[in-house]
Each structure stands twice: as structure tokens, then as C-alpha cells.
User: Which sequence fits this backbone?
């Protein structure tokens, strides 16, 4: 298996994408193709990449992640990443692929953050009422 | 015994060469983190050479030589393509705001950040890039 991409079911305006295998010169085009519809989908404002089973990334893969981040950011969205293996973390750190605040060590940490965001959004809309 | 590998300037051959390098280094007992670094460096350097010095419609040969020297791993990449020094590229603006950051140019930057030293020379009509990694 070179790369496998599993897109989760919608959860509010958040979508999770599980990426397994390798994200490099040979597989980045598959990643780009699978993720493109999500980047275009205006109902998705937070895209979470769960990289628990991603074992290797090269600059070609970083470029794809970065491209996704750029598209989302241009329309006010966000890209979050969770469960980085050591090689991925090292590469992300060196090239500053994703801001430190958008990297989560575990699903639990990410869920707590998303819950907090959700509460804040709900709180704001109640105040408006 | 140093490891020597040759490949054609075809991105499709890159994966096999990189995996062969990785397996050999693991077999030689190098730590996983160093093997990961070597694999990444090999992919970055070779894919760069294939895209730049060795254009794909011409046939060129690329070679990797890997040798352990005490606490150092010396990786030598060479090819018979047109002169091409990857180290002259400007470092990418990784601290720029996201919308201003270019998405490319990260490969050589990664190699230089990870390696202890990187040097280019044009020798015997070949591009030679010597990358030294510290084995920790």
C-alpha cells in the first residue's frame, strides 16, 4: 500500500481525513485528488488530517499539505493535523508546514479543542439572539 | 563494504532505489531515525536531479553510494546530467504569512537542515552531491 485516504462523515463544519502509508513523490497526486472536493466544499471550515498511520512524508507531500492549508485559509477555513509519527513531526517542524497551535498530539486533545470551538460558536449565536 | 546503487533518470525507478537504500541501512544496524533521514534525503536529491539536471526524455544514469564512517553516514549522489548545483537555490521563506509563502522549494532546504554537511561539485562530467549525516 502506498497511500490510503479515508474521508470521515461530516461532523458539523468539520471533516476528518485519515491518511495512511506514505505521502511522497509517488503518492501526492492521489492525495491532492482525494482532498480537492473537500477544499472546494464551502460547508467545511475545519479539515482535520489524522496522520496516525502515515509513516513517511517528503517535500512533495508537505507541498500538498501546505497547498490544502493555503486554499482553506484563503476562504477562512483551517487545517488541523493530529497523531504525527516521529518522521512526519520532524519534517513538519523543519519546514513549518503547520503552525504549532494547529498540531495535536492525540485525538483526545483535538476533540477537546473542537468541543471548545463549538461551544464558543454556540455561545456567540446565543448572545446574538 | 559501501553500498552502490544505480538508476535511470525516471521517477518510476526512484522508489525502488530509495527502498533498497533504506533496507540496506536498516540491515546494517543503523538507527531508524537515521535511516528515515537518509531515505528522505535520497528522495529529495534524486527527484531533484531527475527534474533538473537529467531531463526525462534523455537517458541519464544516477548513482548512490552510501558508506558508514564511524559516527558518520556519507551519502554520495551523482549523475551524468547537465551541470546542476541544487545548493544555489534561495532558501524558502518559511516564516512568511501563509498566503505569501510559495508552496515549493522545500526539498533542498530539508536536506540542508537535516544533514551535517552538504557539498556539490562538478567532477568528471558528473554532478556530485556529498551529504553527511551524523549517526546518533
Assistant:
Amino acid at each position: 500500500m502506498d497511500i490510503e485516504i479515508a474521508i470521515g462523515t461530516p461532523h458539523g463544519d468539520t471533516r476528518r481525513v485519515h491518511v495512511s502509508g506514505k505521502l511522497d513523490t509517488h503518492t501526492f497526486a492521489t492525495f491532492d485528488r482525494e482532498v480537492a472536493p473537500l477544499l472546494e466544499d464551502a460547508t467545511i471550515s475545519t479539515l482535520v488530517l489524522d496522520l496516525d498511520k502515515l509513516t513517511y512524508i517528503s517535500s512533495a507531500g508537505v507541498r500538498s499539505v501546505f497547498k490544502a492549508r493555503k486554499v482553506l485559509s484563503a476562504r477562512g477555513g483551517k487545517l488541523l493535523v493530529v497523531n504525527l509519527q516521529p518522521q512526519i513531526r520532524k519534517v513538519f517542524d523543519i519546514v513549518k508546514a503547520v503552525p504549532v497551535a494547529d498540531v495535536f498530539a492525540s485525538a483526545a486533545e483535538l476533540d477537546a479543542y473542537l468541543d471548545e470551538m463549538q461551544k464558543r460558536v454556540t455561545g456567540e449565536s446565543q448572545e446574538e439572539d | 563494504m559501501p553500498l552502490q546503487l544505480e538508476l535511470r533518470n525516471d521517477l518510476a525507478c526512484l522508489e525502488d532505489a530509495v527502498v533498497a537504500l533504506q533496507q540496506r541501512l536498516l540491515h546494517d544496524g543503523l538507527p531508524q531515525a537515521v535511516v528515515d533521514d537518509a531515505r528522505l534525503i535520497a528522495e529529495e536529491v534524486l527527484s531533484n536531479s531527475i527534474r533538473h539536471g537529467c531531463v526525462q526524455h534523455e537517458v541519464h544514469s544516477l548513482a548512490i553510494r552510501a558508506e558508514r564512517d564511524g559516527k558518520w553516514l556519507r551519502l554520495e549522489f551523482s549523475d551524468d546530467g547537465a551541470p546542476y548545483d541544487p545548493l544555489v537555490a534561495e532558501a524558502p521563506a518559511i516564516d512568511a504569512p501563509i498566503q505569501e509563502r510559495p508552496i515549493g522549494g522545500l526539498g533542498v532546504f530539508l536536506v540542508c537542515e537535516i544533514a551535517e554537511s552538504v557539498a556539490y561539485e562538478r567532477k568528471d562530467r558528473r554532478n556530485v552531491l556529498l551529504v553527511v549525516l551524523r549517526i546518533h
